[in-house]
Amino acid sequence: xxxxxxxxxxxxxxxxxxxxxIPWHIPSDFRRFRKITEGENLVVGEKTYDSFPNRTxxxxxxxxxxxxxxxxxxxxxxxxxxxxxxxFKEFEQDLYICGGATIYKxxxxxxxxxxxxxxVDSKYCGEVDKLEGQKIDITPCIEAMEKNxxxxxxxxxxxxxxxxxxxxxxxxxxxxxxxxxINIISINN
Length: 189
Ligand SMILES: NC(=O)c1ccc[n+]([C@@H]2O[C@H](COP(=O)([O-])OP(=O)(O)OC[C@H]3O[C@@H](n4cnc5c(N)ncnc54)[C@H](OP(=O)(O)O)[C@@H]3O)[C@@H](O)[C@H]2O)c1
Description:
The chain is built from 5 helices and 11 strands, in the order ββαβαβββαββαβββα. By secondary structure, the chain is α/β, with parallel strands linked by helices.
């Protein structure tokens, strides 16, 4: 199993959301995210799951972390509830860690078995929408990335978003997964 974290953060302050929303709309970033995650298993926090249109993402299995025992998903065939992050230690398939901030931080700070093997780091360098709500940032994850990971690609730019791949220092990384990701981020999406 390879664990891949995928995020798009605002350059400088590392904001990924304001309230429930992502405060920018970059079509090629959505398309890149769809290409990376289509057909795959995703893990998200309950707030991110609730922010998806109709609480779903087509053609993906979604694993939702929540501490609410009564939480109900929108698609019982493809969406699954977890209340303990440790359940992902023995996950057999590739796992795409897709936010939000709480979930990225949990995976990046809960020990080697949960840390992503690969990070798809997208940096948005434009203006952020002025929205009401709490600003949510992933600065501790970026600090952990810069300390524990090695950048293995150039920055690929599209629509003011700069995307690069990082892999965990000292670990073997599944080459097929790396190739798939490079193929997606290195072309215009
Ligand atoms: N730009 C990007 O790439 C990107 C990607 C994804 C999300 N986002 C943004 O990120 C923001 C949401 O981030 P967030 O940090 O507020 O929320 P989140 O990570 O999506 O979800 C947090 C929820 O996860 C559950 N949780 C937390 N710790 C847990 C644990 N140890 N075990 C089980 N469940 C646990 C809790 O659900 P319960 O309260 O139900 O217990 C908690 O409320 C939104 O603005 C969203 O749009 C941005």
